[in-house]
Amino acid sequence: MKFVSFITGLLSLAALSSAAPGYGQGGGHDAEAAASKQIDRLQKQYQKYIRDTIKTRQTGCTSKNILRRREWGSLSKADRRSYIDAVYCLYHNQSFVTPLSEIPGVRNRYDDFVGGHLQLTPFVHADGLFLPFHRFYVHLYETALRTECGYRGAQPYWDWTLSYTDPAQSTVFDGSPWSLGSNGVFVPGRSPITVAGAGFTRTFPPATGGGCVYSGPFTPDKFQLHLGPIAFEPAGPQGGLGYNPRCLSRDLSPDFASGGTRPTNVTRLLACEDLACVNVRFDDPVGGVHGYGHFLVGGIQLDVFASPSDPVFWLHHAQIDRLWTIWQNLGRPEEQRTQQVWGTQTAANTPPSDNVTLDTLVPFGRLSPSKPVRELVSTVDGPFCYIYE
Ligand SMILES: *[C@@H]1O[C@H](CO)[C@@H](O)[C@H](O)[C@H]1NC(C)=O
Ligand SMILES: *[C@@H]1O[C@H](CO)[C@@H](O)[C@H](O)[C@H]1NC(C)=O
Ligand SMILES: *[C@@H]1O[C@H](CO)[C@@H](O)[C@H](O)[C@H]1NC(C)=O
Ligand SMILES: [Cu+2]
């Protein structure tokens, strides 16, 4: 599987070197190819450590029941379709749990997940709850796909380093029935979008799309967004909580992709010695690989509140979680990094909040009872049992 991804990576690098002579700022062709190999090596080291851990520790997570989270492009077409079908199933389930008195725009089970994120955004971004919150949040979604919608697989991830020169080349965005749709249709003459998110403000120039996604599984006739936006104008009704049906739009940006989702951006993060450094390299206010993964997609991905409205969100956050767990398992002893906490409990510590400890309760709104950070740090203990392949 990784071999295929690696070859895809090399091919995109090869395509790039002939097509875009000026790309090499701060890490050329060789540096990126070497970084891709390094990530593969570190992932293998992580996998070996996880396999050893589940053999020696009796957590109920075993090589038999462990979920294998794979890169989208390495799944068979049939497996990609069964994932997409499960997303449709959540979308078509009209018995949601969110009270309309809380979020009037919710219409289906998929919206429950968007709504939970929308309510919790100021507490779980640009702070010490970011990583543990999103780990369990993705797990809740994966669990709903499996237990409510008959999906047999694991949550896939999107390794954006494989197409950092041109995200439209990714199997995630190729517009086929086995993708998550395409770029948005190109809309000329657009103005930049100013986003005031959790802990940052930034203006985004128009990129290569901007309109609705018209190919693949999430076209306007099959899938609509209902909530938001909140972080940019014009906001949806009732402050973005009201019913605001519209198409999924995207605005793929090769500039953001090559600006922050390169293999070298990842190796720099994995080289961190502590969780403070890891968090900064994920979530730096002016960038970080987490932000860039959202920015390069555009559309609702620019709205930190309602970003889970685009189904690609879950694959991006699985990739973020993958990098965190690889980093956690590279240190020795493993517990030392896995048990590390960092930061406070509000975005950019505004308003000021307490430091996160292993006992801090992470909120999940209507999606789940709160969980202590302690239960969310290991991917093979507590509620979790999965490995990234
Ligand atoms: C619909 O969602 C509810 C939660 O609100 C869940 O309990 C139920 O299993 C789902 N039903 C289907 C058919 O997916
Ligand atoms: C990603 O890496 C490139 C090349 O090394 C560098 O110029 C850029 O600043 C990095 N991006 C971020 C967001 O750190
Ligand atoms: C929170 O952590 C910071 C940085 O480690 C430290 O300087 C500060 O004293 C801590 N605050 C409390 C209330 O423990
Ligand atoms: Cu989020």
TrEMBL record:
Keywords: Metal-binding, Oxidoreductase, Signal. Gene3D superfamilies: Di-copper center containing domain from catechol oxidase (1.10.1280.10). One of its GO terms (molecular function) is oxidoreductase activity. It comes from the Eukaryota. Pfam families: Tyrosinase. PANTHER family: N-ACETYL-6-HYDROXYTRYPTOPHAN OXIDASE IVOB-RELATED (PTHR11474:SF125), TYROSINASE FAMILY MEMBER (PTHR11474). This is Tyrosinase copper-binding domain-containing protein.
